[in-house]
Amino acid sequence: MGVKIRQKDGAWWVFINHRGRRKAKRIGVGEPGKRAAKGVAEKIQAKLALGDVGILDDANGKVAPTFAEVAAQWERVKAPEWKKGTVDNYAGIITRHLIPAFGGKPIANITVKDVEPWWTGVRTDGYSRTRLTSMRSILLGIFQRALDDDLVTKNPAERIKGRLGKQDAEIQQIAYLTQEHLNAALAASERVCPGHYPLHLVMATAGLRLGEALALRVGDLDAPALQIHVRRAYRKGHVSSPKNGRVRVVDVGGTTMQALVKVREIRQAEAAVRGTEARWLFPSPTGDKPLSDFAVRRALKKALKAASLPGVKNHTLRHTYASLELQAGVPLLTVSRQLGHAGISTTADIYGHLGPQSNRVAAEAMEAILTGNPTQPPRNLTA
Questions:
Q1: Nearest-angstrom CA–CA distance, 5 and 101
Q2: What is the pLDDT of residue 363?
Q3: Architecture field, domain 179-312
Q4: How far apart, in whole angstroms, are the C-alpha atoms of residue 174 and residue 324?
């Protein structure tokens, strides 16, 4: 609240925000314009302190919009840029976290003193860093829209940039299946839910995300080259681009491709009977969209129970792929590309510790430097 000056479009302006009523007035350019704006601001501030609100009369008594109204405008403008999952996620954050805190307040009246206590509270509520980052980004975006529309004179959320705080929860290492357990899980899948076995197989042996596997089409298989083209993902009932928006080609083994080709032949035969063209490799019962992720999770749970491996999640198959590949000596960069990570640093952060004797190699290299024996072989410390 109050009277402030700010430079906009090369000129100095006076912005008035008094009890929910607002007005902006252009004063001038350059240093003279700045000095004049300061003088005007001081005079207006003095009048408002005495109860003289005449300067606001030609603002038609317009009341500043509420935070909820600006948030709704921001969503409408930004939504076309987002995937459906992001739209749903952001809408949930606005509804559950931002509207209860700021929704009914005129956005011009919300200050740092309102934002900081709210931010302190949510940081102590146990939310993940990803969730907190989304909350903060959305709040910054909403206030930035208000700033661009001259509804506020500064963004009160700027103060909480870079302040996620420490997480007290213990960081857990990723869980993955051993080679023995993976074979047992796939054998059980083929036995108790054969219709879902090819899907479980491609997730475990190609590292595909569940949504990417569900969105495979018959034309995505290059059987002679033993390659799968990952062009899309299916999540929450909507088809979109893969995570990070990157299309990629994944190499697979002969066993996996053979299973997928059999599925493709079945889909083509079914389509021929209907007089249509085969589309989805793993279609829903109606055939017009991919199979639901719920059905796949339920089938995997059944298979894992049969293999005496309860508690394993579908994403564990992707972790298993990456972990076993790295332990087999496959280069980190290759695994990163197969997984479709945004960069090799992501793969290294999650799986880097699984490289074959990576830490031991580094230790022995330093030992060779200290002993002056560069040909010294690694020692067997367990002998």
A1: 28
A2: 67
A3: Orthogonal Bundle (1.10)
A4: 13
